[in-house]
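Need a sequence for this fold. Nothing fancy.
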């Protein structure tokens, strides 16, 4: 059977106040629900929370990504989910993540400032290439933090 091409959709949305109150708990709840569902739908991706914004990349078969985005966009934990980029891509950027979510830390902020020196964080205005680099860097940092935690626990 031919392998379906990978489709990637990146959107930004405003985090709802109800979610802001305990963002960590909200992210845990979203990730816990998403990992098995995304694995089943062959979707990989990354969710970043920063300064009142969610930015999420979803990649996988086009129909699965679009169906999931429709469900996510209707979720009351955020609003005004706006696709920033979407289309077929050569390969997955977040292959190792059925779902990875991260609140940006001070270290991530330094990366963000380097990539986007113009200041205020507004993902709808950051150039697409810069946003992709930010997401890829955040995923990489998250991977290294998890690896370090695992080696400390071993
Ligand atoms: P249910 O879980 O029964 O949800 C029913 C309705 O309640 C839906 O409208 C849902 O949006 C809403 N809802 C669910 N939990 C809560 C809650 N704690 N507080 C308020 N409303 C709630 N799901 C994935 O499978 N994969 C993802 O990658 C993914 N990413 C997400 C990213 C963000 C920023 C957000 C906010 C949600 C994400 N979700 C993701 C969850 C997704 O929006 C749906 O909750 C999920 O698809 C299940 O919806 P459901 O209708 O099948 O079932």
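Here you go.
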């Amino acid at each position: 059977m031919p392998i379906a091409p990978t489709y990637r959709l990146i959107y930004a949305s405003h985090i709802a106040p109800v979610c802001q109150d305990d963002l960590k708990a909200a992210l845990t709840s979203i990730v816990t629900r998403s990992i098995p569902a995304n694995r089943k739908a062959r979707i990989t991706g990354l969710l970043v929370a920063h300064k009142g914004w969610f930015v999420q990349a979803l990649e996988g078969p086009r129909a699965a990504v679009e169906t999931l985005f429709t469900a996510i966009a209707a979720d009351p934990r955020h609003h005004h989910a706006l696709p920033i980029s979407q289309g077929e891509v050569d390969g997955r950027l977040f292959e190792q993540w059925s779902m990875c979510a991260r609140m940006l830390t001070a270290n991530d902020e330094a990366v963000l400032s380097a990539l986007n020196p113009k200041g205020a964080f507004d993902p709808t205005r950051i150039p697409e290439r810069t946003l992709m680099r930010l997401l890829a860097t955040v995923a990489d940092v998250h991977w290294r933090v998890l690896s370090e935690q695992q080696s400390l626990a071993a």
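For context: Residues 29-30, 33-34, 37-38, 45, 47, 54, 56, 68, 71-72, 74-78, 99 surround flavin-adenine dinucleotide (CB under 6 Å).
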